[in-house]
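Support case: zinc ion complex. Customer-provided input:
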Amino acid sequence: MKSSLQCPKCRCRKIWCIEEPHHDNRFQGGTPLRVVYERRVGPVNNGFFSDGGRDRVSVGTYEVFICTACGYAEWYARDIEALEENPDEGVRLLDGELQGSAYR
Ligand SMILES: [Zn+2]
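Agent response - structure generated as follows:
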């Protein structure tokens, strides 16, 4: 939809683009939605107020395209070059090119 400017569901060609969607936080105002994941930065600590040695990593923002007719939405992440694979923390890189070559 981003490049075709046509909704893949209903074929409508009028598309909203929101370059920096915000999370509506009624206590602090709107804040931009960011690509965020957690990673362990220290030993596991089960103390009552401990965060378990975890850190939040913020690496980029989103943009969203929304069909004016049916509301179908596509999200794209931007500025995510700093993402690092860490399967233990749920950040995995799925490389279809490597998987495809294994079956040739
Ligand atoms: Zn549509």
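The helical segments are 96-102.

Case will auto-close in a few days if no follow-up is received.
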